[in-house]
Amino acid sequence: QVQLVESGGGLVQAGGSLRLSCLASGRTLSLSSKNMGWFRQAPGKEREFVAAITWSGSSTDYSDSVKGRFTISRDDAKNTVYLQMNSLKPEDTATYYCAGRQPSPWLEARPIQYLYWGQGTQVTVSS
Hints:
The chain is mainly β. It is built from no helices and 11 strands. Strands 2, 4, 5, 6, 9, 10 and 11 form a 7-stranded mixed beta sheet that branches. Strands 1-3-8-7 form a 4-stranded antiparallel beta sheet, with no helix packed on it. The radius of gyration is 13 Å and the shape is globular. The relative contact order is 0.31. The mean pLDDT is 93.
């Protein structure tokens, strides 16, 4: 069973930065064979797409709300995917989840297309 474990969340002031990590652990498939994504969910809201990266790392995609501020990357040697978040805003406050799906040249923003999910890490941005 693939287990994804997020870390790096916390409390930060507006304008600050955080880097989230997503590590595959347990009896796991290598993340290097997966397209990966980051999603977030605020209380009372639906889970929304944040960023995605192909298995090869050659393509990335971002939601309009984070484009230019967040960067998704991967280090397959460490079996880890990252989300660097800069210029954070209070509206970025949410639980952030990483997710994995089968490799594809196309990036997917719909949560239902992802098979593997982590438990989430809380990000709180104060004004």
